[in-house]
Design brief:
42% of the residues lie in helices and 16% in strands. Keywords: ATP-binding, DNA damage, DNA repair, DNA-binding, Nucleotide-binding. Pfam families: MutS_I, MutS_II, MutS_III, MutS_IV, MutS_V.
């Protein structure tokens, strides 16, 4: 990456032209960035930097030659700069923009230039470079190193701060290495600063641009001095002060400001434990914001019915940090319910919100002095929509609090309306921005110019009448000003008071003393009017900037209204239900005196999958607090989807949303852990199994009785013996020590006997039927354990060659036969399979607990046990008559395959079915 001053120019600095010498000086001061140097209508880069910019932006390099030699140049058109700047930022370059800071026409000699902003991926503020409805954060991780011993003692190891420079949102927290990793995952910064002393391993998980800053920036005294410009630094821990101060110093540097960023109204200190904690693995596993394959819908996409960028960012923040305070959750549910139950109110509010611009970013541009007249009109139009929102929710008690915060800022709206025309030009220096009647002196100057133009407009008719020249014309050019044009054939009629101004091929151009006087009057008045308009607009912009706190408060209220009405719209259109938040201990530690705080969902659905699968099968979930549900069943039957939909119901509920279910009774959990799916971390030197074990480690160390844990196929990446042992031990730990409510999907059917040994372990399975060798997945969860994983059948569905599938069937059959022989022979390498009652077999799918039954019992046959399980699983209330007949036919077929069993339980030849003989 080429940055800084070109070496080829540094070598011959004394020989450079004044402009190139100026470029080198700027490039040396901003040696960590590519300098784009304003020259006329282009931003130029030179020498090595030009080569880099041309390559990334796909521009043509030009060889330039002057008295000092030959050099390479590359230019970006100023009018189309955002397109090329985005390419440089996407390539993780810093770009220092050096603008002309004086009028070239007024400059005596070299035009003065200075860097007006430094663009980086995390600090861009230009609308064209920002994603609407999303935050762009730059974050900082720092230690308290350098502080006094008293200051550092007992404080968390790291401070983590983040700021959105475009909106002014700034927050800071502190914690250990694990907390840093979790926070960076939730923040998702585009750029990261790391202070000295930060262990690189702590920030390895952050996939973003890394920025180095002078270590002095992270000195406690220097950081404190910066932070004091925004907040009382004593309110923060030592590490928090360093992180926030260093970060804000960097933000000021990138915006070219000598003082504080006025629109950063406050620095919020927060505790991650005051929200539902979702680490990087959970965010990824639940696909809240990113789909696994990099395309397709996410949970956020599914529920995002917002009408404004403000609401979109707020909804994203709610989903990223769901609540853990029961009263706050229910208050949000009340507001969503109010919108859901009042269609007219909801639609009136959403229509008004459609006119709302991004108040936060508007306020930022206004405070930075970079807003144009159109920005102020956008602010005006947004303020004009607020009364309609207030009126719509006036009688809704659940929305009284947010209504009180909807200050329409009438004084500000009226000021802008009085000052700025409805459709202002893009350039505020070209005039035509300020309304007539706003300023008396401006009106007088405009009147002078207008009267002069009117006099000139009538001049042509008067001069034709006075001179008798019928084709005489009055015109204007920027170079020569106003003129009277006479063709060569009429020159003999030209009066004596005409003075020649310009000679053309077929005509002459003249002016008169009065025309010259009027011209000077008009041009002088227009120039004065333009200058006066700019001054008036700049003053207006400063007056609006003084109200940034009020604008920010209104932006917060509008964002809440939009997010709440969006959740209500999603609930109504997708048939979501309001969850009942169960009593009991909430995740903040409060106790409401009721222990019935488990997860209870009736006919729950996966909010994303049901959008693309019209035949999605709903399922119930009844998980009392601390339950460990062992979920067995075939691949592709829906185990992972089921686990995710339960977790998503909890996340949605605590974010304030209704949930996709017929009824929902949900607790407040403190964390959601996921270990779903498998992938290598080749770059990090970790196999799939090692990564799985690391994720399992995090779960087992941090899960509590208030947590929800999803584990999928733990232990499958190693030998069967080791994997089964790890899985069993993990289940026992979650049950006995962590006490976390857990969904544990597994193909280790041997684990299902844990339900007999532990009171809160239960078996659940996904039902499937087999007919003529073809498996049909019913996608319904049932009590008990599965009778088969149908792995070979799934391989067949995947297209594995027939010969491989047939051989696999033979091997499975042989393995089962060998297992039966060893069991009958008392081989202690295979656990004997004690018998249960028929009802127990139908419920749990296989024998593990009862004493051996008498020889010849049909209950001893695994095929019969499976048949009984599926017969028990058949839900007649949810089965059509045709489906019931097909199922009955299938059961008969399977019974025949198991052997023609007589009433005594024997085959025709006297052998016990599936028992290997007597």
């Amino acid at each position: 990456m080429v940055t800084g001053a070109p070496a080829t120019m540094l070598d011959r600095r004394e020989e450079l032209t004044p402009m190139l010498a100026q470029y080198v000086d700027v490039a040396e001061r901003y040696d960590d960035a590519v300098v784009l140097f304003r020259v006329g209508d282009f931003y130029k880069a030179f020498c090595e930097a030009a080569d880099e910019v041309a390559r990334i932006c796909e521009l043509t390099r030009i060889e330039r030659e002057d008295s000092t030699g030959t050099y390479t140049a590359c230019g970006i058109p100023v009018d189309n700069a955002p397109k090329y700047l985005k390419r440089l930022l996407d390539a993780e370059y810093r770009v220092a923009v050096a603008d002309q800071v004086e009028d070239p026409e007024e400059a005596s000699g070299l035009v003065e230039r200075a860097v007006t902003q430094v663009l980086t991926p995390g600090t861009v503020v230009e609308e064209e470079l920002l994603a609407a409805g999303s935050n762009t954060y730059v974050a900082c991780v720092a230690t308290a190193a350098g502080g006094s011993e008293k200051e550092s003692e007992g404080n968390p190891a790291y401070g983590v701060a983040h700021v959105d420079v475009s909106t002014g949102e700034c927050a800071v927290t502190a914690g250990d290495a694990a907390a840093v990793d979790e926070e960076l995952a939730r923040i998702g910064p585009a750029e990261l600063l790391c202070g000295p002393g930060v262990d690189p391993a702590v920030v390895d998980g952050a996939d973003c641009m890394r920025t180095e800053r002078d270590p002095e920036t992270f000195e406690p005294d220097a950081a404190r001095a910066v932070l004091d410009r925004y907040a009382e630094s004593e309110r923060f821990d030592a590490a928090e002060r360093v992180a926030a101060g260093a970060l804000l110093s960097y933000a000021e540097y990138t915006q070219g400001d000598d003082g504080p960023l006025e629109y950063v109204r406050r620095v919020r200190r927060y505790d991650p434990r005051r929200s539902l904690r979702l680490d990087a693995t959970a965010l990824r596993g639940l696909e809240l914001f990113e789909n696994h394959v990099g395309s397709g819908r996410t949970l956020f996409d599914t529920i995002d019915e917002t009408r404004s960028a403000l609401g979109r960012r707020r909804l994203r923040a709610w989903l990223r940090r769901p609540l853990v305070d029961r009263e706050a959750i229910e208050a949000r549910h009340d507001a969503v319910a109010a919108f859901a139950e009042r269609t007219l109110v909801r639609e009136d509010v959403r229509e008004a919100l459609s006119a709302a611009y991004d108040l936060e970013r508007l306020a930022g541009r206004i405070s930075r002095g970079r807003a144009d007249a159109r920005d102020l009109r956008s602010l005006h139009d947004t303020l004009a929509a607020v009364p309609a929102i207030r009126d719509a929710v006036a009688d809704v008690e659940a929305l009284a609090e947010v209504r009180a915060d909807l200050d329409p800022l009438d004084d500000l709206r009226e000021l802008i309306d009085a000052a700025v025309v409805e459709e202002p030009p893009q350039e505020i220096t070209d005039g035509g921005v300020i309304r007539a009647g706003y300023d008396d002196e401006l009106d007088e100057v405009r009147s002078t110019a207008r009267e002069g133009r009117e006099w000139i407009a009538n001049l042509e008719e008067r001069e034709r009448e006075r001179t008798g020249i019928d084709n005489l014309e009055v015109g204007y050019t920027q170079v020569h000003g106003y003129f009277i044009e006479v063709t060569n054939g009429q020159l003999d009629r030209v009066p004596d008071d005409y003075t020649r101004r310009q000679t053309l091929k077929n005509s002459e151009r003249f002016y008169t003393p009065e025309l010259k006087r009027r011209e000077d009057e008009i041009l002088g008045a227009e120039e004065r009017a333009d200058a006066m308009e700019y001054e008036l607009f700049a003053d207006l912009r400063d007056r609006v900037a003084e109200e940034s706190d009020r604008i920010g408060a209104l932006a917060d209220a509008v964002a809440r209204v939009d997010a709440l009405s969006a959740l209500a719209t999603a609930a109504v259109e997708r048939d979501y239900v309001r969850p009942e938040i169960v009593a009991g201990a909430d995740a903040t530690g409060g106790d409401t005196g009721d222990n019935d705080d488990g997860i209870h969902l009736k006919r729950s659905r996966h909010p994303v999958v049901e959008e693309t699968e019209p035949e999605f099968v709903p399922n119930d979930a009844d998980l009392p607090r601390g339950t460990v549900a062992l979920i067995t069943g075939p691949n592709m039957s829906g185990k992972s989807t089921y686990m995710r939909q339960v977790a998503l119901a909890v996340v949605l509920s605590q974010a304030g949303s209704f949930v996709p279910a017929e009824t929902a009774r949900l607790p407040v959990v403190d964390r959601v852990f996921t270990r779903v799916g498998a992938s290598d971390d080749i770059a990090g030197g970790e196999s799939t199994f090692m990564r799985e074990m690391r994720e399992l480690t995090d779960v087992l160390h941090d899960a509590t009785g208030d947590s929800l844990v999803l584990l999928d196929e733990v232990g499958r990446g190693t030998s069967t013996t080791d994997g089964r042992a790890i899985a069993r031990a993990a289940v026992e730990f979650l049950h006995d020590e962590a006490g976390a409510t857990t969904l544990f999907a597994t193909h280790y059917h041997e684990l299902t006997d844990l339900a007999d040994e532990h009171d809160r372990v239960v078996n659940r399975h996904f039902a499937a039927t087999e007919r003529d060798g073809e498996v049909t997945f019913l996608h319904r969860i049932r009590e008990g354990a599965a009778s088969s994983s149908y792995g070979v059948e799934v391989a067949d569905l995947a297209g594995v060659p027939d010969s491989v599938v047939a051989r696999a069937h033979d091997l499975v059959a042989a393995d089962r036969s060998d297992a039966g022989d060893r069991s009958a022979a008392g081989d202690d390498t295979v656990e004997a399979t004690p018998q249960r009652t028929l009802d127990e077999i139908a419920t749990n799918g296989h024998d593990t607990s009862s004493p051996p039954a008498a020889s010849g019992s049909p209950r001893h046959d695994p095929a019969v046990a499976g048949l009984l399980t599926d017969l028990r699983d058949l839900s007649l209330a949810e089965t059509t008559p045709l489906e019931a007949l097909n199922s009955l036919h299938e059961f008969q077929r399977r019974a025949e395959e198991a052997g023609d069993v007589n009433r005594d339980g024997y085959d025709d030849d006297g052998a016990v079915p599936g028992g290997g003989g007597q």
